[in-house]
Amino acid sequence: MITSEYKQDGNAMLLQVKEVSKAFNYADSKTLQRNAVLRNVSIDIKDGEFVTIVGPSGCGKSTLLNIIAGLERPDSGNILVKGESKTSTDPDRIVIFQEGGLFPWLTVLENVEFGLKLSGVPQEKRRHAASQFVNAVQLSRFADSYIYQLSGGMKQRVAIARALALNPDILLMDEPFAALDVQTRDLLHNQLLQIHEATKKTILFVTHNINEALSLGDRIVVLSPRTGSIKREFAIGLPRPRDVQSPELTVIKRQILKELEEDFQFARRETRTQTIQ
Amino acid sequence: MLEEKHVHKQSSKRSFDVSDAANIALFLAAFAGIWQLVFLLGIWPTYLMPSPAIVVTEIGNLIENNSLSIGIGITVARLAAGFMISLGIGVGVGLAMVKFRGFGKTMSSFAVGLLTFPSIAWVPFAIIFFGFNDFGILFVVVMASVFSVMITTYSSIRNIPPLYLRAARNMGANGFTLFRHVMIPAATPSLILGIRQAWSFAWHALIGAELLITTLYGLGHILMVGREFNHLDTIIATMITIFMIGIIFDRIIFRKIEERVRSRWGLDQHSE
């Protein structure tokens, strides 16, 4: 019933994050403390949208992504995909991890085939499909290489190909390019935008890098580590590729920095009181 | 660039093998030379210090009257049987230890204790329980190696990087598919190390058990016969055979497997 509702309503959301909260226990020197990383976070994402979540480390970005993927359980709230509540992992929401998470015992092609193998696609067919995705990220020359033989940027391209091969509804990217050098990162940004353009895949991209968020997203969500909630959202209607130095983006960047500055001050105050104690 | 790297790797490996072989030949020649020299000095009588030539002749005799081939056959068969039983039980219990946390914790401290327990100390128990037969020998071999397999299985699986499991679960793996397609291959490099160690425990225990639990066949039996008739040449010939079997299993079979796994998993980067 809910599903049909989704189909009827063209404006319905592909992914809905509803009032998600999550706290972690951490042991202090004496007491067990509970630290809320996410408090009533709600995000709606339309089909085909490219949303970036920006925030400093420790703001719960990765936790949010893991909850959306079903790898972690929220304390409260829920995740809806096409109007259906989801609590477990599912190949319709694929995470691309910062470290890639590729399997070293498989070749590039076999890594890309992995998800298809799990869903029981026959060998011939999945090999054919996988090699198309390997081509799409321009790694066909390395199809039979093992993972350790690849550079960091190539590894992330394999991770993207592996995710795309499963034809997910949504790609969840957890700071996938954070460990790469600037040139490689720019190259991968362009490739990702081309893929987004060609496949119209919905992408939720988490990063601490404001420039990265500005150049990629249709929408930027600023997450605060202090409150564990969404501080502000910016819609960016500019065509891509974008120049992050342009006046429009500079204005937005300044606003994001201002939002985050309060959090940094808060964090500083907190460490100071801790030292005094 | 990648192909160049491969070519380089292969050529360096081949030259390494040649110099290796030369070194071994030189070492053996020096060893035999010193041995021959000591023999010629005549400090000890021939029955205490046979020459290399006498020992080689004895190896020929043992081959000719089939006692060596039967001995090797029986001993290797016992080794294989005992080791297979160890693998089966060890991997099975190891997996159960992963599955049931509490059992794993208790069993691992128990197994670590038994790991340091001298395998020879099982012999009196085995003799009384099973008697002087193959079952007694197998029992000692299994007890010597099963705990090593168990601990290895347990720790290899527990030490799999969680990221692999998350990525696989995310792509739809669970239960058996997660085990078969991710846990087993991810644990393989460390599993192989542990299994190689377990094999060497089994081998030590087997020869010890063959010496103490006397049956009619096996390399240990030939050693004991040599001792009873004061045939030091027989004893040395058998010792050389035991040494060679160890080399063949460890250096050739296990190392080849380990090298292949390590290079495939990209674990040999630091040595290049």
Fold and architecture overview:
The complex is a heterodimer of chains A (277) and B (272). In chain A, a hairpin with a 2-residue loop joins strand 4 (76-81) and strand 5. Chain A has helices at residues 2-8, 61-69, 108-118, 123-136, 152-165, 182-199, 210-216, 247-276; strands spanning 15-27, 32-45, 50-54, 76-81, 84-86, 93-96, 170-174, 202-207, 219-223, 230-235. By secondary structure, chain A is α/β, with parallel strands linked by helices. Chain A is built from eight helices and ten strands. Chain A has a six-stranded mixed sheet with strand order 6-7-8-3-9-10, with helices on both faces. In chain A, strands 2-1-4-5 form a four-stranded antiparallel sheet, covered by helices on one side. The termini of chain A are far apart. Chain B has helices spanning 2-41, 52-64, 67-99, 101-115, 123-130, 134-158, 162-170, 175-212, 219-228, 232-264. In chain B, helix 3 crosses helix 6. The radius of gyration of chain B is 23 Å and the shape is globular. The chains are: A alpha/beta (277), B mainly alpha (272). The A-B interface holds A 69-71, 89-91, 93-95, 97, 99, 101-106, 114-115, 117-119, 142, 145-149, 162, 166 and B 2, 5, 163-164, 166-173, 177, 181-182, 185-186, 188, 264-266, 269.
